[in-house]
Amino acid sequence: MLHRSCLAAAYLCLACSPLAAQGAAASASEPTVAPTPAPGWGAWGGIARNSPDNIWGAESGRDIELIALRLTWPLARSRRVALDYILDAVPAARVSMVRDDTDPPWCRDAKPGEPCVTSPVVSDTRPVLGFGIAPVGIQVRHRSGARVQSYANLSGGMLRFAREMPMDGAARVNYTAELGAGVLIGRPGKLGVAVGYKFYHISNGGTAMHNPGIDNHMVVVGVQQILRF
User: Which domains does the chain have, with CATH numbers?
Assistant: First the structure.
């Protein structure tokens, strides 16, 4: 009886061994699924002083302060470069004047049938507050696995102010476009520091009687979770 039991056990092992080998080979051939990259959170603040007068921004002499919350989502990465999606929510924005002799709007800014205003038209010179969002943004990081990374980003959105800005006859809702660069300092996967420069444009896109626009050379400082794949 014992002899027959041993023979049956040996036969069963021989029969199952090819199946076990096939299962191991199938497991080895299956690709390893990489974990889904997690988004990162951060916050930053920006300050611009005495906005200049140039081809895009005709209204000069403004100070601007911003506070923003940022979501960063990794999109792609090579050995040294990473591409991220960025979204900024701006809970607080402040625009103030630094001089009293405001620039009058150009005649070409008036709509057809409207008179050309040739005198200052800022009836309220107090700072104006606003809020907004920049939902369209892309960021490129160089040396994406290092503790010191350089970055460049481009984004656009809108701000809504408490009154017409930057002058009477403009709009409360303005569009924003920004181009920035700087450095991220911190260990990947941890909270780090971001320091940089941002060219920040504000205008209503021609949706109001006057659209002088404001251009700003902004210094930005913030904290941000350094992404890793």
Answer: 38-100+117-225 (2.40.160.20)
